Every structure is written in C-alpha cells, then in structure tokens.
C-alpha cells in the first residue's frame, strides 16, 4: 500500500439545535490509503454527509484529529482550508452543482480560476484533459441544460479532477441517476480508481457499494463495520444490464 | 482570482438580467445626470456673470466717500465731499498698480435738441474714463485734457441719447444740445454696450469734462466718485491697497481710524456674485445627490436579491476553493460595475442636458472636468459602499448551508 491520504482519530461533530445536542459523529476513527476506493454507507441521518464535509474541509470537527496528505487540518485558518479544498480535494455532489448558463469547459475550469499559479492557457488545457477523461471531449461548449443528468455528473467529475486532487469525495453521486447511468458513472469512477485515484464515495445503496474496494458503515455517528469488498466490475454490470433490458 | 476574470464574471451576471440591471442603474443615471447638469449649469451662469462684469472693465476700482455719520445719523455718502482734486492728482502721479484714474461728478437735467427732449444725467469725467469702463467710440472723438483744462462745453453721448434726440436721423456729431440752459456740443458717440447685469441701460449716458460739470453745472470742487483701473485684473487688490494708502495719507487719517472713503474692486463684486451662484450650485447638487443615494440603495437592494438567488453558486465556489475575499470581490465588482456603467450613462446624459439648457439660456457651455471626475469617483464609491454589505453577506456564508440552500 502507498501513503496514508487521510487519517481521522476520534472525530466528533456535535450540532447544537436549540437546547439539544445532536451527535452527528460520535468518535469516528479510520484512515484511507492512497489508491483506495472507499464507500461510506449507512441509513439516512447516520452522519455520512457530516463526515464527508469534514473530510472535504468544508466543516470542522467539534473534537478529534484530522490529517489530510500529512497536514493536520485542525490548526488551519479559514483561508488555508479554502486553499486545501482548492488544491487537494475534488467534490462531486448528488445534484451536480454546475453553474447555470456556463459551458461545460468553463465549469471544469472553475477550480483553477481560484489558483493563481495556473495560467489561463494551462487552465484550458487541463480542463480539456479532464473532460476527455470523463468522455465528454465533444460536449465542451454545451451548457448544463443541454446535457443529460449523467453527462452533467461527468462534467462535475471532470471539475473535481481538474486540480488533480489527492482524494475525490462524492456524496450520493449516483443518487439522482437511473440504474444504467449509475453503472456508467460507477464504471467511470472505477476507471479513475484504476488510474490511481483515491476515492471516498457516500451511498446508501448496497448494489453501488459493491463496485468499491472497502466499505465503512455508519450508524448514529458510529462506525459499525469497516470491511474490504469483493469488488465487482461496473462495466460488466452495465453490459449485463443492457443485455437484460433488451 | 484576478481582476479581469472578476470583471468578466460580473458582466456576465449582469447581462443575465439586463432589464433588472438597467432599472437598478436608473437611479444612478438620474442622480449623476442631474449632478453633472446642475454643476455645469452653475458654472456657466458664473461664467456668464463674469463675462458681463468684465465687459464693464474687470480691473475697475471705484472709490466713494464713506457714509458720513453725524450724531449717529447716517447722512448717506453723496453728501460727503472727501474726494477732491488733490486726491486725483496724487493717484495720477504716485501709483504703480493704477493705470488710469478718472473722477466722476454727475447731475441730472433735461436734454433738449430742437423739439425733442430726454431726461438724462450728465457725468463729468476725465478722458481716461473710456478706458476704465471699456467704452469705445463709434464715431467722433473723445474730449481731451485740453477740454478739461478749459471747461469746454463738449460732450460724448451714448446710443440711447442719440436715438431719443435725433429722431430724424441727423448726424449727432457737431450738433449742439442744451442741457438745461447750457449748450453743449456733441463731439463723439459711444458704441452701444446694452444693459449691464443689473438691467441698467449703459447707453443712456452723457460724458463731459469733469471741470465743465463741476463749474458750469454744479458749482462744486469735490468729486462724487473716483474711477480707477488697475494695471491688470490680478493686480486690482494691490491697486486698491495702494489707493487706500494714498488717500489715507492725503486725508490725514491717523492709524486706527476708519477710512473716510469706500473702495470697491470689480473682483469683489465678481466674487460676491459668484459666491451666490456657487451656493445655488451646491444646493442644487446636494439635492441631486439625494437621488444618487436613492440609486445606491437600489443597488444594495438588488445586490441582496442577487446574493440570495445565487446562494448555491456561492456554496459551490467556496467548496471548490474560493476564498471569502474572492466571493466578496465578485459581488463588489458587480455592484461597482453596475454603478459605474450607470455613472457613465449619467455623465453623458448630464452633459447633453446641460448643453441643451445652456444653449436655450444662451449661457456659455462649460464642461466641468472636476464634476465628471468626482461623479466617476462617487459612482465607484457608491458601488463599493452599497455593495459592501450584500457582498459581505455572500462572503460570510457557510458553504455547507449555502450548498443545501433551495
Ligand atoms: N447543520 C446541522 N444542524 C443540526 N443538525 C445537523 C446539521 N447537519 C446535520 N445534522 C444532523 O446530523 C445528523 C447526520 O446528518 P447527515 O446529513 O450527516 O446524515 P446522512 O447520513 O448524510 O443522511 P442522508 O443519507 O439522508 O443524506 C442528522 O441527525 C442531522 O439531523
Ligand atoms: Mg447526506
């Protein structure tokens, strides 16, 4: 195994709602190695999104340690957290979150706009590269409303890839898609994983989790299971699905 | 994110809601247009007053006897006899900044020529009076120092007098008119000057040697007034000081005592006049700037709407690494561009408006570069000031909450 990409120890996240404390995360510890494809599972309200937001430096834990790529996040300022998100993390959301009336290529360029070290030329090149990687090289000038849901999610994945993050974080990335498109997206994630990307993938569908290499199950803010998965091929599943439908 | 990209994003966002952007700008447009129009109209009116005054001789200085107070009773200044020949000589000889001096004595009388008559004023002056007041001869000649010495009964008249006395188109030069019982020969006619800014007819004038008026008409030895001209407009203050100094010495006024004469420079008159128009300009500009504030509030309002509408976008930008500063600048540049475009349109509109108005009023057209520059800066400031809180609101959003916003 390669490097430790992220490591959390006894992570707690408590929300205060009125007079009551909601323990969204109740002391969670695990680490993710380079090249792992982790699915985070659990019922609704079990704390998956809360965990992913902390992993993505969008939120801070109430207590506990979090190290990403060797950097302890707890001590970082707000600015540094933004930079961290910009350089080390790629987010994929359930509802794509593409900018409306903005072409696919411009959407993909967006993260690099906030990185002054990347020139306009390099930005364009890397965006084209990322769109190629998700198979949308011939949809670059399309607007989000001219793309299917699956294609929009591919653009979003390209956007998450464009800054070459150490980890891809996906929250229910297939949640809005039909089975067939979900398989396509999972097949894309598997490709990326094969090329060496580290991925953390939140889902509550077991038949999606089988395409990953490791599953962490949460319940009420606690890990109840952390196991390796007998990984299945999404491409093969897609093939079978197509044949079955016909 | 660099400035160019920020501007691009802002313009793109504004173009997305063209009519909304335009309506928001309208307040700024109206505000700036009226400020520009008011300021440049104010300046044209000042300029037109100045032009008229300098038509009277802008380096002119008037010396009048001071009001005489006797036992607390104001005797007026016409009764005073403090200015006389000695003063005139002193001012003619001992000054550096005084170009010309002329005394003035005047009395009213009926002018008669044949069967025509005209009520007039005969003013006794010296030949240099024409230079001081910037009168020009249309025909004939001005009387000379020689005429002054000999109390010659000659005079120079203005257009109004000619029109009233010589109704049959006679050549007035060489004609003898009677002033009361005294015959006076007309030797020159003055070019028409029209009305002054007080509405007085400057052509209803009869000029004669001051000695003639003093001896033959009034039997006095003092002067009603002295007119002088400074060597240049800039030196009128110096000339006034000089005159004061000489007259005080002549009149043996001890230090600490008040002058027994009043000095008015044209500059003073000019500055009182322009301070009045300036006050008016300021007042109008202040009223106009209220609409600028209203316009600014309009921008603020729309920026709040924009920020709320784009909460999700803000969340996303933050999630992919935008700093708070980037978000802040994005919305600030939007409001600044909005108000600057409004400002530019307003400036153009204001210039057109003031051009049209000064044309109608036949005032000189003034483009106030200061007003344009200040308007531009005010617009930028308005954009920043009124865009600040909405932008701050955007920048302070919690990315997670913003992403979840529906
Ligand atoms: N901002 C918040 N304020 C208060 N409570 C919160 C907040 N965010 C999450 N929670 C609570 O934390 C718990 C975990 O929420 P979380 O969104 O992580 O669940 P989840 O596992 O992602 O669920 P789902 O599968 O429905 O997305 C829930 O009980 C939720 O009510
Ligand atoms: Mg969730």
Rg from alpha-carbon coordinates of chain A: 18 Å
Whole-number count of domains of chain B: 2
Alpha-carbon distance between the two ends of chain A:
41 Å
Binned, the helix content of chain B reads 55-70%
Sequence stretches where pLDDT stays below 50 over 5 or more residues of chain B: none
Query: Which sequence of strands runs across the widest sheet of chain A?
Result: 6-7-8-3-9-10
Biggest β-sheet of chain B: count, sense, barrel?
6 strands, mixed, barrel
List keywords for this structure.
heterodimer; A: 246 residues; alpha/beta; Rossmann fold; six-stranded mixed sheet; 36% helix; B: 406 residues; alpha+beta; 2 domains; six-stranded mixed barrel; two-stranded antiparallel sheet; 12 strands; binds adenosine-5'-triphosphate; binds magnesium ion
Task: Give an account of the 3D structure.
The complex is a heterodimer of chains A (246) and B (406). Chain A has one domain (4-245): Rossmann fold, CATH 3.40.50. Chain A is 36% helix and 28% strand. Chain A has helices at 48-55, 78-88, 104-113, 120-133, 149-161, 179-194, 206-209, 234-245, and strands at residues 4-17, 20-33, 37-42, 63-68, 71-72, 89-92, 167-171, 199-202, 214-219, 222-228. In chain A, the strands form two sheets. Chain A has a six-stranded mixed sheet. Chain A has a four-stranded antiparallel sheet with strand order 2-1-4-5, with helices on one face. The longest helix of chain A is centred in the C-terminal third of the chain and has 16 residues, at 179-194. Chain B has 406 residues and is α+β, with helices and mostly antiparallel strands. Chain B has a six-stranded mixed β-barrel with strand order 4-5-10-7-9-8, surrounded by four helices. Chain B has a two-stranded antiparallel ribbon with strand order 2-3. In chain B, helix 3 packs across helix 8 (236-250). The longest helix of chain B is centred in the C-terminal third of the chain and has 44 residues, at 266-309. The chains are: A alpha/beta (246), B alpha+beta (406). Chain A binds chain B through residues 53, 56, 58-59, 78-79, 82-83, 85-87, 91, 93, 97, 99, 101, 110-111, 113-116, 159, 163, and chain B through 1-2, 5, 16, 312-313, 315-324, 326, 399-400, 403. Magnesium ion is lined by residues 48-49, 171 of chain A.
């Amino acid at each position: 195994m390669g490097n430790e990409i992220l490591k959390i120890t006894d992570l707690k996240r408590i929300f205060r709602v009125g007079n009551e404390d909601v323990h969204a995360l109740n002391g969670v510890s695990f680490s993710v190695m380079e090249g792992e494809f982790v699915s985070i599972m659990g019922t609704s309200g079990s704390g998956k999104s809360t965990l992913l937001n902390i992993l993505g430096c969008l939120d801070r834990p109430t207590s506990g340690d979090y190290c990403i790529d060797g950097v302890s996040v707890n001590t970082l300022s707000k600015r540094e957290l933004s930079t961290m998100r910009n350089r080390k993390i790629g987010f994929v959301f359930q509802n794509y979150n593409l900018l409306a009336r903005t072409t696919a290529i411009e959407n993909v360029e967006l993260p690099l706009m906030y990185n002054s070290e990347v020139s306009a030329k390099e930005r364009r090149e890397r965006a084209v590269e990322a769109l190629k990687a998700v198979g949308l090289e011939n949809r670059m000038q399309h607007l989000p409303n001219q793309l299917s849901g699956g294609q929009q999610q591919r653009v979003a994945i390209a956007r998450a890839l464009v800054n070459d993050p150490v980890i891809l974080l996906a929250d229910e990335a297939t949640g809005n898609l039909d089975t067939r498109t979900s398989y396509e997206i999972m097949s894309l994630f598997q490709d990326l994983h094969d090329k060496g990307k580290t991925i953390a993938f939140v889902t509550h569908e077991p038949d999606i989790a089988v395409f990953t290499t490791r599953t962490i199950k949460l319940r009420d803010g606690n890990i109840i299971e952390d196991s390796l998965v007998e990984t299945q091929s999404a491409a093969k599943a897609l093939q079978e699905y197509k044949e079955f439908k016909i | 994110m660099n400035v160019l990209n920020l501007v691009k994003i802002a313009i793109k966002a504004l173009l997305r809601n063209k009519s909304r952007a335009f309506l928001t700008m309208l307040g700024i447009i109206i505000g700036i247009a009226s400020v520009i129009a008011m300021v440049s109209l104010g300046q044209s009116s000042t300029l037109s007053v100045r032009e008229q005054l300098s038509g009277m001789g802008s380096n002119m200085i008037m010396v009048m006897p001071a009001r005489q107070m006797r036992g607390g009773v104001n005797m007026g200044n016409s009764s005073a006899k403090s200015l006389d020949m000695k003063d005139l000589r002193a001012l003619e000889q001992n000054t550096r900044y005084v170009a010309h001096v002329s005394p003035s004595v005047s009395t009213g009388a009926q002018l008669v020529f044949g069967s025509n008559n005209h009520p007039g004023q005969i003013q006794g002056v010296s030949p240099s009076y024409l230079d001081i007041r910037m009168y020009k001869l249309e025909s004939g000649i001005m009387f000379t120092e020689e005429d002054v010495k000999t109390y010659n009964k000659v005079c120079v008249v203005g257009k109004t007098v000619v029109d009233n006395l010589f109704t049959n188109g006679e050549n007035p030069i060489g004609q003898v008119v009677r002033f009361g019982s005294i015959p006076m020969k007309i030797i020159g006619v003055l070019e028409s000057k029209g009305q002054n800014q007080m509405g007085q007819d400057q052509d209803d004038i009869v000029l004669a040697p001051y000695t003639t008026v003093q001896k033959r008409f009034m039997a006095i030895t003092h002067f009603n007034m002295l007119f002088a001209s400074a060597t240049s407009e800039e030196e009128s203050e110096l000339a006034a000081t000089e005159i004061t100094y000489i007259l005080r010495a002549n009149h043996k006024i001890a230090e600490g005592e008040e002058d027994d004469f009043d000095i008015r420079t044209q500059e003073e008159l000019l500055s009182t006049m322009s301070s009045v128009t300036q006050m008016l300009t300021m007042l109008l500009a202040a009223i106009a700037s209220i609409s600028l504030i209203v316009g600014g509030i309009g921008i603020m309002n729309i920026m709040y709407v924009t920020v709320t509408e784009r909460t999700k976008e803000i969340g996303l930008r933050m999630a992919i690494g935008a700093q708070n500063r980037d978000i802040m600048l994005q919305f600030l540049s939007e409001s600044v561009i909005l108000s600057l475009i409004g400002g530019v349109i307003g400036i153009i509109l204001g210039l057109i408006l003031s051009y049209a108005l000064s044309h109608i009023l036949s005032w000189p057209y003034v483009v106030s570069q200061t007003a344009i520059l200040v308007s531009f800066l005010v617009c930028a400031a308005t954009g920043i000031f009124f865009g600040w809180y909405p932008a701050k609101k955007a920048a302070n959003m919690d990315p997670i909450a913003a992403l979840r916003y529906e």
